[in-house]
Every structure is written in C-alpha cells, then in structure tokens.
Design brief:
- The chain is about 50% helix and about 10% strand.
- The radius of gyration is 17 Å and the shape is globular.
- The chain folds into 2 domains: about 5-80 and about 200-215, Glutaredoxin (3-Layer(aba) Sandwich); about 85-195, Glutathione S-transferase Yfyf (Class Pi), Chain A, domain 2.
- The chain has a 4-stranded mixed sheet, covered by helices on one side.
- The chain has helices at about 15-25, 45-50, 70-80, 85-100, 105-110, 125-145, 160-175, 180-190, 195-200, 215; strands spanning about 5, 30-35, 55-60, 65.
- By secondary structure, it is α+β, with helices and mostly antiparallel strands.
- The protein is built from 10 helices and 4 strands; from the N terminus they run βαβαββαααααααα.
- α1 (about 15-25) packs across α7, α4 (about 85-100) crosses α7 (about 160-175) and α6 packs across α8.
Length: about 230
C-alpha cells in the first residue's frame, strides 16, 4: 500500500511542498489528499482529522507522521538515499534542513510563498536581507563542498533540496537573484520535473481571495495556520 500524504494548497503551502517533493523527488509512490487551509466555516472540521490539526501528514498504514522534518526523517529511514551517504555530508544536510525548519522567520513572514505570482520587492527589511544572504551563503558553500556529480545541493536529489524548494520559489516571486553557484542551483531546482508538476497542481487548487494572503499564510512561523 502506498503512502498517503495530506497537504494544503500547492500555491501557498511551503510546508506541504517539502514533504511532497521528498516523496516525488525520490520516486516514492504515494497518494495525495488536499485539505484546503482557507479560513472558511469548514476548516475546523477538515483539520480535526489530523493529529495536530495541520498539514502535512504522512500515513503509512497505521503509522501517522506529522511535521515536515519528522516526515523527512521517517522516509529517510525507509528509503536510503534521501540523505547523503557520506557522514560529514549527511551531518551538513541535516543541519541546513534543521536551520531552515526552525529559522528564517523574517523571510517567511515578509516573502510568503506563492508559486504562481511575480511581485518583485523594491524595499526589504534588514532582517530579510540578512536571511537572504544566509541562504545564498548556505547554497554556495554546500555546492562547493558537496555538489560534485550533479546540479543540486549534494549533486543528486536529497531532502535538503525538498527543504529549500520553497525558498527558490520565494526568490523567483520576489525578484531575488542569488549570486554565484547559488543562482545556478536555484534554476536547476526549479527545473525539476516534480516542481513543474507541483506548479501545474497549484493552478488547479482552490483559489483563495487574493487580499491579505500574507495574513492568511504567514507561512512557516512558530504557529502556522493549518501547516507544519
């Protein structure tokens, strides 16, 4: 029996994208179930069926795993290759995924993910600029250390690419052009067939009202609405 993955709208839900891409990028069969995160009268009932009332949630028979980092670790235990084989590279990959999972609040709140939009920013806060610089530094250094053998962070696809895919979309939406190898990496990541599929799905999702999307989707902050 394949996995079942519960996700939110593909246009906006960066948490869902991480787990979805971990599965699709590694060629792991699964079924997806879309639960809209729109704040309508039925939201509470939709979310009540999930362990923490948030997406994503992975079902594996009677096992349920929630939170995107926990899902990634669970999949990596069962499907070798989602983490780099080399111990030092694997430690680095885990560290940059954990940093993304728990940090970058300025970038999340000020540049919420919208994979179908283009709205370049003329001004950014110092916090957002610093976090953009940090991501670019991580991408450049990871590519220099471990990127031999392919165009992605560790050459081939790993969980690190799944965790940074939402950032690549944010950079595209808000007009950020990373310098150095990071720029080539962002292009290679967004060119993955799996992400083309994700974007096609985003165009078919339930479309929320375009007003105040940043309030509806503050993205991966400490208490995201319906996402984990």
């Amino acid at each position: 029996m394949p996995y079942t993955l519960y996700i939110g709208e593909k246009r906006y839900s960066s948490w869902s994208l991480r787990s979805w891409l971990a599965l699709r990028g590694a060629g792991i069969p699964f079924q997806e179930v879309l639960l809209s995160l729109a704040p309508d009268p039925g939201k509470e009932a939709r979310m009540a069926r999930l362990p923490a009332g948030r997406v994503p949630v992975l079902e594996d028979g009677e096992v349920r795993v929630w939170d995107s980092l926990a899902i990634g670790e669970y999949l990596a235990e069962r499907h070798p290759g989602l983490w780099p084989e080399d111990r030092a590279a694997r430690a680095w990959a885990r560290s940059i995924c954990a940093e993304m999972h728990s940090g970058f609040q300025g970038l999340r709140n000020g540049m919420s993910m919208d994979v179908l939009a283009t709205r370049p920013q003329r001004k950014r806060t110092p916090v957002i600029e610093a976090e953009i610089d940090r991501v670019v530094k991580l991408w450049n250094e990871t590519r220099a250390r471990y990127g031999q053998g392919g165009p992605l962070l560790f050459g081939r696809f790993t969980l690190a690419d799944a965790f940074y895919a939402p950032v690549a979309y944010r950079f595209r939406t808000y007009g950020v052009t990373p310098r150095g190898a990071a720029g080539d990496y962002a292009k290679a990541l967004l060119a993955l067939p799996a992400l083309a599929e994700w974007e096609e799905g985003a165009a078919k999702d339930v479309v929320l009202a375009d007003h105040d999307l940043d309030l509806l989707y503050p993205e991966d902050g400490p208490a995201p609405r319906g996402a984990a």
